[in-house]
């Protein structure tokens, strides 16, 4: 059977599965719609959280980011940053927010800071973070379809939107939870199977996590030593010690990703679906177990794929790949534009070098590290088909989680909470479905007409969540003295400083030419790149909130009681909207 | 309202914070400490093909994070029972 047919069958099967789950897990109440009825087992929730969390970027791009753009060790910021956030989430936020037992993140902020204005500011922050993030996912869906199924980008996006529409509108959080569990299984198989084969081929060790630290088959040379040698030969920095800009920048980058992770609303609301406070604690652990399976495999994929690529381009020292001898996978991916060469010196060979002047490998897209892996390792076609289904599962599951966070903020916080408090449960359920349909259409529109800033959006979403939502939630739980004025000023100050810094270096809304500071590192604050600035925004948020709270009237007595109440587990009812 | 009197509530919260801070110290040391600040020093040590600092940054810190969350969850469960504030089955 040819690859195309096989890919259609595998992807078609997974889609049929998601639709089947959508019909089985319809939502019958707002509680089903917002928190899946509140009865999800912590291990299941962990699995769903892992799929919710791991996006197209984790699945398709991360290994390449580590291997190529961040040159090895520098990519550790993503590995530590996108996992360490769960430790903070498990200890600082999830159990307390679960104890509080409401449906949305802005609802907690509104109640704790006794103010609808605070709730409205939280809704705006949530929508800014989630929309910037969802654009990246919609692009991921379109790209995955167009690469694997050779349909055009727009068609791919429509198919993806239809599938998400099915289970998200019908089932809300309940439908999303069960499809995410299925999507996790698909994506983790699709990620680990090629990695195991490659590890076996290169090192003879089936576990990629150990393979990366092993010797190459038939030699006593360690894989990483070999990799360091071949990259430095071509003028690149040593793979295992290549720092991203500076130690301070790596520190800030990792911290921003960690607290951004803990502050992303679509991740937080997943912990509202478990029955008890202690389930929220352990469920964060399970989520990280399922995430770690991919995140400890990714650096192995990065190192091994980089070595394979280097050895393809420079089969023996000083001897570069002849243009006529390019392997089939190389030619396949040239067609997509992800790989490109240019024989500058006309010697019929492709010189690969760190020097931009003489480098003839003019384009190596980060995504190639994962996408071309099965072909480089000469794996059977069904594995390639599975990688396609995995990439789609990763993008769809994250998009659905984000859309739910957006639509529940609209129907529950804006409509029920502020505009029409007397709306009936049935009407609110309908409103939430309509909000979801609009959110999908809006995200689809942005996917079809990506704004100029789409490329930088996922990294930006972390900075925004880190600087606005995370500090507000943390202060709400750990301090009784923060006032509504303090919280509002803190959120606006934090997100404002972060946006200001990003726009000043990258352009207003990322429009080229509107940056008012020379691009490049010399004007960076402490040498921190804009993507890593969220933690500074968070510090601003904390400082402003404490300062303003000192000079404004203390919170009312009932807020003190609320904080006391969320600090002990006993008496947590199921999550409710009342 | 909390079933604890003011004294007990304070003590419960103090013990929670102290457990949390101990866990966060470990969290900080394995990632920011071993993975970033001390990476060059630890890279002098090699375990198999891995330089130790590099291993912490790309593998070790993640394993420790997982263990930390389960440890915290277990210890908090014990603390809840000691103070009688655990949830009923």
TrEMBL record, chain A:
Originating organism: Pseudohalioglobus sediminis
Transmembrane portions of the chain: 6-25, 53-73, 79-97, 118-135, 155-172, 184-202, 250-272, 284-305, 382-406, 427-447, 453-474, 486-504, 524-548
Gene3D superfamilies the record matches: Sodium/glucose cotransporter
Domain of life from the UniProt record: Bacteria
InterPro entries linked: Na/Glc_symporter_sf, Na/solute_symporter, Na/solute_symporter_VC_2705, Sodium:Solute_Symporter
Record's protein name: Cation acetate symporter
Keyword Transmembrane on entry: yes
UniProt keyword list: Membrane, Symport, Transmembrane, Transmembrane helix, Transport
Any Gene Ontology CC annotation: plasma membrane
Protein's membrane topology: Multi-pass membrane protein
Pfam family, one: SSF
GO molecular function: symporter activity
Compartments it resides in: Membrane
Similarity remark: Belongs to the sodium:solute symporter (SSF) (TC 2.A.21) family.
Main location: membrane
Automatic annotation (TrEMBL), chain B:
Sequence intervals crossing the membrane: 21-42, 54-73
UniProt keyword list: Membrane, Transmembrane, Transmembrane helix
Domain of life, source organism: Bacteria
Signal peptide limits: none
Annotated ranges, domain Sodium symporter small subunit: 10-86
NCBIfam families given in the database record: Na_symport_sm
Descriptive protein name: DUF4212 domain-containing protein
């Amino acid at each position: 059977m040819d690859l195309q047919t096989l890919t259609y069958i595998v992807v078609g099967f997974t889609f049929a599965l998601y639709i089947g789950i959508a019909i089985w897990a319809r939502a019958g109440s707002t509680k089903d719609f917002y928190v899946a009825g509140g009865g999800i087992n912590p291990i299941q929730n962990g699995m769903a959280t892992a799929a919710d969390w791991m996006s197209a970027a984790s699945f398709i791009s991360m290994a390449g980011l580590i291997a190529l753009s961040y040159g090895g060790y520098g990519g550790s910021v993503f590995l530590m940053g996108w996992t360490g956030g769960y430790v903070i989430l498990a200890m600082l936020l999830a159990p307390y927010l679960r104890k509080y037992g409401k449906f949305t993140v802005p609802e907690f902020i509104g109640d704790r800071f006794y103010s609808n204005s605070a709730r409205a500011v939280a809704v705006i922050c949530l929508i800014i973070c989630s929309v910037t993030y969802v654009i990246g996912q919609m692009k991921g869906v379109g790209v995955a379809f167009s690469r694997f199924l050779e349909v055009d980008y727009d068609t791919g996006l429509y198919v993806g939107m239809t599938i998400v529409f099915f289970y998200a509108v019908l089932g809300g959080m309940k439908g999303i939870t069960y499809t995410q569990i299925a999507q996790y299984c698909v994506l983790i198989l699709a990620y680990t199977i090629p990695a195991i084969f490659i590890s076996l081929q290169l090192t003879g060790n089936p576990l990629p996590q150990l393979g990366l630290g092993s010797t190459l088959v038939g030699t006593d040379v360690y894989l990483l030593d070999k990799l360091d040698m071949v990259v430095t030969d071509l003028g690149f920095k040593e793979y295992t010690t290549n720092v991203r800009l500076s130690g301070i920048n790596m520190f800030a980058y990792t911290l921003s990703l960690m607290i951004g992770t803990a502050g992303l609303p679509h991740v937080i609301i997943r912990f509202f679906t478990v029955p008890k406070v202690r389930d929220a604690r352990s469920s964060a652990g399970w989520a990280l177990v399922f995430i770690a399976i991919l995140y400890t495999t990714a650096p192995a994929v990065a190192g091994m794929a980089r070595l394979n690529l280097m050895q393809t381009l420079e089969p023996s020292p000083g001897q570069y790949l002849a243009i006529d001898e390019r392997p089939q996978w190389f030619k396949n991916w040239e067609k997509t534009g992800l790989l490109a060469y240019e024989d500058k010196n006309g010697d019929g060979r492709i010189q690969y070098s760190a020097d931009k002047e003489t480098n003839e490998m003019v384009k190596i897209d980060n995504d190639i590290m994962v996408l071309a892996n099965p072909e480089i390792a000469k794996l059977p076609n069904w594995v390639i088909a599975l990688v396609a289904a995995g990439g789609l599962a990763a993008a769809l599951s994250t998009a659905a989680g984000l859309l739910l966070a957006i639509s529940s903020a609209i129907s529950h916080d804006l409509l029920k909470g502020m505009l029409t408090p007397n709306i009936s449960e049935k009407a609110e359920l309908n409103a939430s479905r309509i909000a979801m349909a609009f959110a999908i259409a809006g995200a689809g529109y942005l996917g079809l007409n990506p704004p100029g800033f789409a490329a930088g959006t996922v990294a930006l979403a972390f900075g925004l969540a880190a600087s606005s939502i995370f500090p507000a939630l943390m202060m709400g739980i750990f301090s009784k003295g923060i006032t509504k004025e303090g919280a509002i000023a803190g959120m606006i100050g934090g997100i404002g400083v972060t946006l200001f810094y990003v726009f000043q270096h990258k352009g207003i809304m990322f429009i080229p030419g509107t940056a008012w500071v020379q691009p490049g590192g010399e004007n960076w604050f402490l040498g921190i790149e804009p993507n890593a600035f969220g933690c500074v925004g968070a510090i601003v948020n904390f400082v402003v909130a404490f300062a303003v709270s000192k000079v404004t009237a203390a919170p009312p007595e009932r807020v003190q009681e609320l904080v006391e109440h969320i600090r002990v587990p006993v008496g947590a009812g199921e999550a409710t909207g009342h | 309202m909390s079933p604890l009197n003011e004294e007990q509530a304070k003590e419960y919260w103090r013990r929670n914070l102290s457990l949390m801070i101990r866990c966060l110290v470990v969290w900080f040391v394995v990632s920011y400490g071993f993975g970033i600040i001390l990476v060059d020093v630890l890279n002098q040590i090699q375990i198999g093909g891995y330089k130790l600092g590099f291993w912490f940054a790309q593998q070790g810190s993640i394993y420790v994070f997982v263990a930390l969350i389960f440890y915290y969850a277990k210890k908090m469960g014990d603390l809840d029972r000691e103070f009688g504030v655990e949830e009923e089955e």
